[in-house]
Amino acid sequence: MLTIRLQRMGKTKRPSYRFIVSENHRDTQAGSLEILGYYNPVEKDKTLQLNKDRVEYWLSVGAQASATVHNILVKEGIVKGKKEKSVYLSKKRQGKLAAKKAAAAPAEPAAPAAAPEAGMADMHPDQQFLEYVVKAIVNNPDSVRTTRTVDERGVLITLDVSPTDIGYVIGRQGQTVRAIRTLLRVVGAKNNASVNLKINEPEGGRRAPRPMSEAPVASADVDTSAIDNIEI
Predict the structure, then answer these.
(1) Which CATH superfamily hosts domain 125-200?
(2) pLDDT tens-digit series, residues 174-208
(3) pLDDT under 50 in the chain at which residues?
(4) What is the pTM of this model?
(5) 119-146 pLDDT tens trace
(6) Region Disordered: what ranges (predicted)?
(7) Pick from 110, 146, 109: nearest CA to 131
(8) Domain-by-domain residue ranges, the chain?
(9) 64-65 and 2-11: which strand pairing?
């Protein structure tokens, strides 16, 4: 296929070009069928000389203009249509440009802190802490309720959860609830308060039964021969 394209001439960093007609598969420096004009983008006035009649002839016989030449012809009014994309960047080059653009862009302001849940804004820090921890480990966080009371012995927070979540709050052998109580005491110490936790176990709450330390021994299996002959 014949193509009207640019052949680079000139010196290093001062290029000039020829408009040539050549086979699409051949190198632009390997010769051409015809030279149609000249283009020097380095000069101040960007010299452009183009044989309009010969360009129109080659286009009429099926020659195709390259994207760059097409855009020049559109600008000069030789052909009608929209300009085409003439610069194609490799994925590697696109990645470098994107990274450079991101580095030059001003840093985005930090996102505002999430607003506290409705009702938690009025809670004391120890009560907020307890609800936050418990809601994170249960399956029904909407069922978590706390009540905070203060008397001469200190602070008492009463916790209510869904019956199906009581096991998550207690934990294996009470490890989870002990950890929560320890953390509550730390939070209370920061506010010069003694904080205790009470959990209302709802009916139907599922807790693992405590393992029996020893199995009961049947009376028939006990050896009583040593005391059978003792007279009382």
Answers:
(1) K homology (KH) domain (3.30.300.20)
(2) 899 899 989 888 888 887 888 888 888 776 555 54
(3) 208-232
(4) 0.38
(5) 555 788 888 888 999 999 899 999 999 9
(6) 199-224
(7) 146
(8) 2-84, 125-200
(9) parallel
pLDDT at 94: 77
**Per-residue pLDDT at 108:** 62
